[in-house]
Amino acid sequence: MEKEERRKLTDYALRLLSLRPRSQKEIEDRLNLYSCKHKISPQYSRDVIIELTSQNLINDEEFVSWWIEQRSLHKPKGRKALINELRRKGIKSNVVENVLSETKYDGKKEYDLALQAVEKKLTLWRNLSVETIRRKMWYFLTSRGFQSEIIYRVIDSSIKKLYNTKDSNS
């Protein structure tokens, strides 16, 4: 019976990991829910976590790298927002900081990501007044966790670009 329960938990964890990388805490939480639902001892969940971690199938540093890459590609966020998201996923601050410094997630990269995030929105906002666009950009980028100095630079360059494009099309 014990082997069967461990196998069920291991299979479940592997199914979760086959969908996308996950933090250790995410796997722990999901295995604990599964254990409760199927009346399996929580000790087996811990054993499965240890086993998968020793096989490097659960690796918080690799998860953080993957998460940052995915955010950069699909939903750019500022350093502050990334750190908060990863903390909610159970990642320790020092792991996040190490990976952010290794991936060179600096002001230049954050500026480029903020520009990328705002580009899509500018097409929706192009017929609004300059002040409305500035306000919308400010709220949008703030909600994505970008630093204020980066937001100011992005707003200035985006407004200039938008109005230079409008003037040349007229």
Tell me what you see in this structure.
Keywords: Cytoplasm. With 170 residues, this protein is mostly helical. The protein has three domains: 1-57, Orthogonal Bundle (Arc Repressor Mutant, subunit A), CATH 1.10.10; 59-101, no CATH class; 105-165. The protein is 79% helix and 0% strand. It contains nine helices and no strands. It has helices at residues 2-19, 24-37, 42-54, 60-74, 79-88, 93-102, 107-125, 130-143, 148-169. The longest helix is centred in the C-terminal third of the chain and has 22 residues, at 148-169.
* Rg calculated over all Cα atoms: 22 Å
What is the subunit organization of this protein?
single chain
Structural class: mainly alpha
Counting DSSP H or I runs of 4 or more residues, the number of helices is 9
Provide the succession of SSEs.
HHHHHHHHH
Extended strand count: 0
Query: Beta-sheet strand percentage?
Result: under 5%
The largest pleated sheet is described as:
none
Question: How widely separated are the two ends?
Answer: 76 Å
Morphology call: elongated
Count of individual domains: 3
Low-confidence stretches are none
Helix content: over 70%
Let me know the average pLDDT: 89
Protein name: Regulatory protein RecX
Main location: cytoplasm
Keywords: Cytoplasm
Subcellular location: Cytoplasm
Which properties best describe this structure?
single chain; 170 residues; mainly alpha; RecX_HTH_3rd; WH-like_DNA-bd_sf; cytoplasm; RecX_HTH_2nd; Regulatory protein RecX
Question: Secondary-structure blueprint of this entry?
Answer:
Elements: H1 2-19, H2 24-37, H3 42-54, H4 60-74, H5 79-88, H6 93-102, H7 107-125, H8 130-143, H9 148-169
Helix pairs in contact: 1-2, 1-3, 2-3, 4-6, 5-6, 7-8, 7-9, 8-9
